[in-house]
Design a protein that fits this description.
The protein is of the alpha+beta class. The chain contains seven helices and 14 strands. Helix 3 packs antiparallel against helix 4.
């Protein structure tokens, strides 16, 4: 985003407001004439129910500008790639029969005519070794189905919870100021001087770390595969990064190698049950709910490891007998408790339940997941490189009492 527009959006965000008429005009005037779609989307947002003064509309406009800039980058890359291919074709034509097209056609883009020279972006082939079934040979036998069976897609139960604060920022780090303490106001007599408050400020610093994945792919047989191996490998990288971030958000050790997870010491309030309590009871969750309220926060979510979710859903009125607290077995599986949604995740440590106010949890986001492809990667071995990166900056809790981490006994 242009620096002058960034100043407009930053000022509006600080003041928790939308954009005024002058600022809207500046945004629209910055949009190139060929970006009609972006203009239309912004005008529709401004004239919608929220109006230009809504912070939500401001965020919507910012997203529109971001995707407009992404399209512009893609267009520049496409033009540069076309120029490179045209240059190669010109050199090939000057070389005579040494690198002339196959099949006698000199029109670019037709079939396999340029397979005798450097592979172009339109000639991505196998991400696999055809002779080894386990390495991808199943993709190119004499006949194969037109889709691949993917492994189970893991869901991110951390990022799905509404209310978690995601702070987007630019630069090397990000500081979130906080008020750590202040004096208590009291009664002042008529005409008496009012004591001056003495607030103390602190700050939570977010420094981005990078989650990344890299695949190298042989440029061999993609044209013969019945499904898009390029899309498959991109999906695998995206899901792999999402799953790892989700796991670290719960149990990461912090530092330069992972996020600081909610179960790390100091992130929340630890509640360790005594020996013999291998199943967390609803009484412990009710206590955690009350402790969060006592801290001035509002409980809004329950995260549970699969082993503890089983026990909570099977809890009965009289211990081993009586009706199920979560409802009859003919009802839907319990997805709420104490009025809070229950999210079950294998990314939590075993024997763990977290009750939290998600509005007291903060994450910094430096850049979204990006997929990049390079034909130059492993050039001497005829490889294509696929890379996924995601820069996220820390995980912080502004009030540890608002996150109650209940741990059942191991024995």
């Amino acid at each position: 985003m242009k620096s002058e527009l960034r100043k407009i959006f930053d000022a509006a965000e600080v003041e928790s407001r939308g954009l005024d008429a002058r600022e809207i005009a500046a945004v629209i005037n910055s949009i190139p004439a060929e970006e009609r779609m972006a203009r239309t989307e912004i005008l529709a947002a401004v004239n919608g129910e929220g109006g230009a003064n809504s912070p939500e509309v401001r965020e919507s406009i910012a997203e529109t500008l971001k995707y407009m800039e992404m399209r512009a980058v893609d267009a520049r890359e496409d033009r540069a790639r076309a120029d490179r291919e045209a240059e190669v074709r010109t050199l090939a034509a000057k070389a005579g029969g040494v690198a002339m097209p196959l099949g006698g056609s000199a029109l670019p883009g037709e079939s396999d005519e340029w397979r005798s020279i450097l592979p172009s972006a339109s000639e991505y082939r196998a991400l696999v070794a055809e002779g080894s079934p386990g390495a991808g040979g199943w993709a190119v036998p004499t006949k194969v189905a037109d889709r691949a069976v993917e492994f189970l897609r893991a869901q991110s139960v951390f990022m799905r919870v509404p209310g978690i604060n995601i702070h987007r920022f630019e630069g090397g780090s990000f500081v979130l100021p906080s008020l750590t303490s202040t004096t208590t106001p009291g009664v002042v007599a008529e005409g008496a001087p009012i004591p001056e408050a003495t607030p103390a400020f602190g700050g939570m610093t977010f420094t981005p770390i990078k989650y990344a994945d890299l695949y190298k792919a042989s440029n061999e047989v993609l044209d013969d595969a019945a499904f898009s191996l390029r899309d498959l490998i991109s999906g695998v990288m995206l899901r792999g990064i999402a799953a790892q971030v989700d796991k670290d958000a719960f149990q990461g050790g912090g530092g330069t190698t992972a996020l600081s997870g909610l179960t790390k010491a100091g992130m929340g309030t630890a509640v360790n049950l005594s020996a013999g309590n291998t199943q967390i009871p609803w009484d412990a969750i009710i206590d955690a709910y009350s402790d969060i309220e006592a801290a001035g926060a509002a409980p809004a979510v329950i995260w549970a490891s699969p082993d503890q979710a089983k026990g909570l859903r099977k809890a009965r009125e009289n211990g081993a007998t009586g009706g199920y607290l979560a409802g009859q077995v003919t009802d839907s599986v319990a997805s709420r408790g104490l009025g809070l949604p229950i999210y079950v995740s294998a990314n939590l440590p075993l024997k763990t339940v977290i009750v939290a106010d998600p509005t007291r949890i903060h994450m910094g986001l430096r850049s979204d997941v990006r997929i990049a492809v390079s034909e130059d990667y492993g050039f001497n071995q005829d490889f294509t490189g696929f890379r996924a990166t995601y820069r996220i900056a820390g995980l912080a809790v502004d009030a540890p009492a608002a996150v109650q981490v209940i741990k059942a006994s191991a024995t």
